[in-house]
Each structure stands twice: as structure tokens, then as C-alpha cells.
Design a protein that fits this description.
Elements (H helix, E strand, L loop, with lengths): L14 E5 L4 H13 L3 E6 L6 H4 L10 E5 L7 H8 L2 E4 L6 H4 L3 H8 L4 H9 L3 E5 L27 E2 L17 H20 L3 E6 L2 E2 L19 H10 L4 E4 L5 E3 L1 E2 H13 L1 H4 L2 E5 L5 E3 H16 L8 E4 L1 H5 L10 E2 L2 H7 L7 H25 L6
Parallel strand pairs: 1-2, 1-4, 2-3, 4-5, 5-7, 6-15, 7-12, 8-11, 9-14
Antiparallel strand pairs: 10-13
Helix pairs in contact: 1-9, 3-6, 5-7, 11-14
The structure holds nicotinamide-adenine-dinucleotide and uridine-5'-diphosphate-glucuronic acid.
Length: 386
């Protein structure tokens, strides 16, 4: 049966240039596009491990519809040609782990702003549609966080719900280099918006709110550097797999809404296949029903991992650490992130489905199956003597 868009028109097969296709979100998007659509993907990245199962063997049902190009977009003259060959470019490439923002601020700013510039330019000059991945971090802190602790207004959604077309972007001072990422993302959003306004670029900007699931980041010492600090899902998974305490930064009081990657990818597919409804828009993509403090997240993950692995949890499963100890000088944090869903709901009729419990159970089952043996082996190896 021919695929139809939300307005009943049949969808023509597209060629998509996906930059950063080998990452967490890219791997899920490629999987969905191969399994459920006729679209072709030119997959650009410096790594391909997370999409290897889609590239080999050549007998796969979608062979010929996905092509990997090992390209660093910082310096590769093939970029423009690949964008020209495609109907649509999706840019996911970025440094996007908070441990880097204050320790490698230059790399962070270059990656999120400077390196994205040619992509925007080539799309604009060649009249190609662009879906660019920004972040919910562009909202920074909530207005409510500046009110007195006991102010009743803190409970009023007007002071914390984050709306694409109304909320301000509130970052800390320059010396808090945590905001280097958010600020670079904000500027590239403004540039894309301006290309749309002045030069007619067809664009959609996505602001993900803590998408999580299998293949997110890496487990230090197993499929990433031992000293590396991934995002919270992988940090907590790593501690659970090693039977270590989960570290709560500054007491784990910050709040987040987590969304299952598979729900979020449905929203991206709707954007891809409904350009008339998605062009010119900025979309929050999150799950406002899945809010927890980081401490609650740690408690839930501990309980679920115990169920999944059959191992009893530690007597004291968490430990408090200061942000300076954990991330170093210049760290700062978003206090609360509730996405307003009005625009995506109106334009694309999309809503998230999966509860936090269910998504953590699916994800931790994957983590256990994928890493438990490798961790056991690594931990039983004698430490090399100097
Ligand atoms: N996962 C989330 O919840 C989340 C939240 C907010 C924003 N985002 C944004 O979504 C995008 C994708 O995030 P992700 O979670 O998949 O991250 P990821 O780190 O898993 O994926 C990014 C990919 O981009 C590639 N890349 C980076 N620089 C490159 C370069 N110069 N040339 C070629 N490839 C390059 C990396 O190798 C990596 O595979 C990023 O822009 C990120 O800022 C993600
Ligand atoms: O995912 C998003 O929507 C955006 O937010 C993330 O930022 P953040 O949520 O702060 O990063 P996480 O590593 O997921 O941390 C969440 C919270 O857990 C805390 N944390 C993290 C790791 C840990 O071991 N312990 C711990 O308490 C952090 O301090 C933070 O308050 C990242 O910046 C991006 O991937 C993305 O743009």
C-alpha cells in the first residue's frame, strides 16, 4: 500500500543526507527509515558502529537504500555534493555530552556552531530542505528558578513550561562554560531562522528533551574511554552494571522529562514526510508526563535493574558528589524542563506514549544483555602493575 502523509497525499521516496547518522539518534532514525519506509539514506559520520547492523550483510532487505560515507564535516569537500544529491538534509552532528561543555568549550562551540554553518549554507544555496537538531538546553533555566524558594508562583506553569514561541533563553554568566553548548545551538537556530526569513530556506528545527534508550553514548572502559563521562543514562547504567553507587550531582535535585527514543523518532518521521506542516517550525519533542528529579531517576533505575538482572541492589545505592568534583569548574545546570506540546500536537498530531518505567525497563534490559558479560570479564582481569 502506498504511504500517505497526514493530508492523505501519497509520499514519494526521498533521498536523505543524514549527518551524524552513526550516533544514538541517527542509528534509530536509520533503523526506522529502513524498516518502514522506501526512503534512501546517505549516512555521514566518522563512526559507523551503531549502524553496522544496517550496513552488513549485503543480503539485508534494504541493501542499496543506505550508503555509509565516513566523513568529518569539519574538512571534507564531499559534503556539498552529498547535500546536492539529496532531497533533504538532517543534521545531527554535534558534541553533546555535558562533561565536554565546560572542559572543551572551544570544541563544543566549533562543533555546534561553526561546523554546522556550511551545512546551512549548502542547503540554502541549493534550495534543499534542512531538518536541524538543536536542544531543549536553548531554554536554559526556567523563569521560576529566579523566584524566592517559597514563592507560590514557582508552582504556576507560566513560570516553568517551555514554549517554542514564547519562552526566553536564560543562560548563566560566561564563566559558567556549561552554557557554551546551549549558546552555540541558539545562534545556529537564529541563523537558520534568518536564512528562512531572508533567503527562503525550508527548515525545521528540533529541540529534543532528554531522549533516551538503547545505544545511547557508551559504557566507559567497554565501548568508550575508561575516563569518559557520558550522559546520565549511561553513567547510571555503568554504575549499576559494575555494582557501584550512582553519583548524584549536587544532590540530584534537577528535574528532567525523559522520552523513549522510539516515541521521539515517530515525531521525526512525521516531520520528514509532512514538509508542508513542518517547514518553518521549531518543535519541542519530549514527554511532559515523564518528569522526575535525577535522584528519583537513580532510584527507579536501581529498582528496575535489580528486577532485570536478578541481582539485589546495593544497601546504599547512591552517593552525593559536588558538580565541581564531577564535571570540574564552570558547570551549571538547567533546573527543570517541561516541554509545551501545543505546536507539535497542532502541526503533526503527535504525542509521546511510553511511560518512564516502561522505557527504563526496555533500556536496562538492553544494557544488561549487551554489557553484563563484558563488564564481568573486564572486572575480573588483573589490574596491570606499573
Ligand atoms: N539525545 C538527546 O536527548 C539529545 C537532546 C538534545 C539535543 N540532541 C541533539 O541531537 C543531535 C544528535 O544527538 P545524539 O544523542 O544522537 O548524539 P551522538 O553523539 O550519539 O551523535 C552525534 C553523531 O555526530 C557525529 N559527529 C559529530 N561531529 C561530527 C563531524 N564533525 N563530522 C561527522 N560526524 C560528526 C558523531 O560521531 C556522532 O555519531 C545532536 O545535535 C544533539 O545536540 C540530542
Ligand atoms: O538530552 C537533552 O535534552 C540535552 O540535555 C543534556 O543535558 P543534561 O540533561 O543536563 O545531561 P545529562 O547527562 O543527561 O544529565 C542530566 C542530569 O543528571 C545529572 N547527573 C549526570 C550524570 C551522573 O552520573 N549523575 C548526575 O547526577 C546532571 O548533573 C544533570 O542534572 C545534554 O546537554 C544533551 O544531550 C542534550 O542537548
Amino acid at each position: 500500500m502506498a504511504r500517505a502523509d497526514l493530508d492523505g497525499r501519497s509520499i514519494k521516496p526521498l533521498t536523505i543526507c543524514m549527518i551524524g547518522a552513526g550516533g544514538f539518534i541517527g542509528s534509530h532514525l536509520c533503523e526506522k527509515l529502513m524498516a518502514e519506509t522506501p526512503h534512501k539514506v546517505l549516512a555521514l559520520d566518522v563512526y559507523s558502529d551503531k549502524i553496522r547492523h544496517l550496513l552488513e550483510p549485503e543480503s539485508l532487505a534494504w541493501a542499496g537504500r543506505i550508503q555509509f560515507h565516513r566523513i568529518n564535516i569539519k574538512h571534507d569537500s564531499r559534503l556539498e555534493g552529498l547535500i546536492k544529491m539529496a532531497d533533504l538534509t538532517i543534521n545531527l552532528a554535534a558534541i553533546c555530552t555535558p562533561a565536554d561543555y565546560n572542559t572543551r568549550p572551544l570544541d563544543t562551540i566549533y562543533s555546534n556552531f561553526i561546523d554546522a554553518l556550511p551545512v546551512v549554507k549548502y542547503c540554502s544555496e541549493n534550495n534543499k530542505r534542512l531538518i536541524h537538531f538543536s536542544t531543549c538546553e536553548v531554554y536554559g533555566k526556567t523563569i521560576g528558578s529566579f523566584l524566592p524558594k517559597d514563592s507560590p508562583l514557582r508552582q504556576d506553569p507560566a513560570y516553568y513550561v517551555l514554549k517554542e514561541d514564547a519562552s526566553p533563553c536564560i543562560f548563566g554568566p560566561i564563566e559558567k562554560q556549561r552554557w557554551s553548548y546551549a549558546c552555540a545551538k541558539q545562534l545556529i537556530e537564529r541563523l537558520i531562522y534568518a536564512e528562512g526569513a531572508e533567503n527562503g530556506l525550508e527548515f525545521t528545527i528540533v529541540r529534543p528533551f532528554n531522549w533516551i534508550g538503547p545505544r545511547m553514548d557508551f559504557i566507559p572502559g567497554i565501548d568508550g574511554p575508561s575516563e569518559g563521562v557520558p550522559r546520565v543514562l549511561a553513567c547510571f547504567s555503568n554504575a549499576l552494571l559494575r555494582r557501584e553507587q550512582l553519583k548524584l550531582v549536587d544532590g540530584g535535585q534537577s528535574q528532567r522529562t525523559f522520552i523513549y527514543i522510539k516515541d521521539a523518532i515517530e515525531a521525526v518521521l512525521l516531520m520528514i514526510e509532512n514538509p508542508e506542516r513542518a517547514n518553518g517550525h521549531i518543535f519541542n519533542v519530549g514527554n511532559p508526563n515523564n518528569e522526575v528529579t535525577v535522584r528519583q531517576l537513580a532510584e527507579m533505575m536501581t529498582q528496575i535493574y535489580s528486577k532485570v538482572s536478578g541481582e539485589a541492589a546495593l544497601d546504599v545505592p547512591t552517593i552525593d558528589v559536588s558538580s565541581k568534583e564531577f564535571y570540574g569548574e564552570g558547570y551549571d545546570d538547567s533546573d527543570k524542563r517541561i516541554p509545551d506540546m501545543t505546536i507539535i500536537n497542532r502541526q503533526l498530531g503527535w504525542d509521546p506514549k511510553t511511560s518512564l518505567w516502561d522505557l527504563l525497563e526496555a533500556t536496562l534490559t538492553y544494557q544488561h544483555r549487551t554489557y553484563a558479560e563484558a563488564i564481568k570479564k573486564a572486572m575480573s582481569r588483573p589490574v596491570a602493575s606499573s
